[in-house]
Design a protein that fits this description.
The protein is elongated. It is α+β, with helices and mostly antiparallel strands. The strands form 3 sheets. Strands 3-4-5 form a 3-stranded antiparallel beta sheet, with no helix packed on it. It has a two-stranded antiparallel ribbon with strand order 1-2. A two-stranded antiparallel ribbon has the order 6-7. It has helices at residues 25-32, 36-45, 101-112, 118-125, 129-149, and strands at 8-11, 52-55, 61-64, 74-77, 85-87, 161-172, 175-189. Among the domains are: 8-94, no CATH class; 155-196, no CATH class. This is Transposase.
Length: 196
């Protein structure tokens, strides 16, 4: 049975991450990533997956394994006239991915710990380079979107703000003047973590 991706309206909780501090990766997996149900519960507790999903017909859906072939839990409207089925991922950060939720949590944890090399991700997750690059770009885009959604003015009386500009472009045959490019401006407030 095909999932109806636009049928459900997720009711997401605000994203609140527990203060896990410096935890060895193995201990993190053992405490949170014990099995699929534990991962889903943890994602719901932290607002990354919906706890309650409402069908377009207005009824709350039931969460469970509704297909013998399903790898993850799903949602089904229990209204006899409706009976639509969808993924738990609808309306979430994970909606467009077919990767296992456990693997995505591992990736996000590694990425948040500033593991930059693709080789590190390949060794730990076994993903292809293109998948790793795509997810790293997606994570960066989310951070930029979040930053731009909540802009803060920087500087003020007595504060030193450093600004700089650079132009990125290509030389024709690696020689001569730049033919085309993009100007990038940035600024950092000394002593604070704010930037533009």
């Amino acid at each position: 049975m095909a999932a109806a991706s636009l049928t459900f309206t997720p009711m997401l909780m605000p994203i609140i991450f527990p203060d896990i501090g410096v935890v060895p990766l193995k201990r993190f997996y053992q405490s949170i990533v014990t099995d699929q149900d534990a991962v889903i519960r943890w994602l719901q507790e932290n607002g990354l997956l919906a706890r309650g999903i409402v069908c377009k017909c207005g009824r709350l859906v039931k969460i469970g394994n509704f297909s013998h072939a399903a790898k993850e839990l799903g949602c089904r409207c229990m209204e006899k006239a409706c009976r639509k089925v969808a993924s738990l991922r609808v309306g979430s950060f994970f909606e467009s991915s077919n990767l296992k939720l456990i693997e995505l949590i591992e990736f996000i944890f590694l990425w948040s710990k500033d593991y930059q090399t693709t080789e590190t991700f390949e060794e730990n997750l076994g993903w292809s380079r293109s998948t790793i690059t795509g997810w790293k770009n997606y994570m960066r885009d989310i951070c930029v979107t979040g930053y731009l959604s909540y802009p803060e003015p920087i500087g003020g009386p007595g504060e030193i703000v450093e600004i700089d500009e650079s132009k990125f472009g290509n030389h024709k045959y690696s020689r001569g003047r730049l033919l085309s490019g993009q100007w990038v401006f940035g600024g950092v407030c000394r002593g604070l973590v704010t930037c533009l």
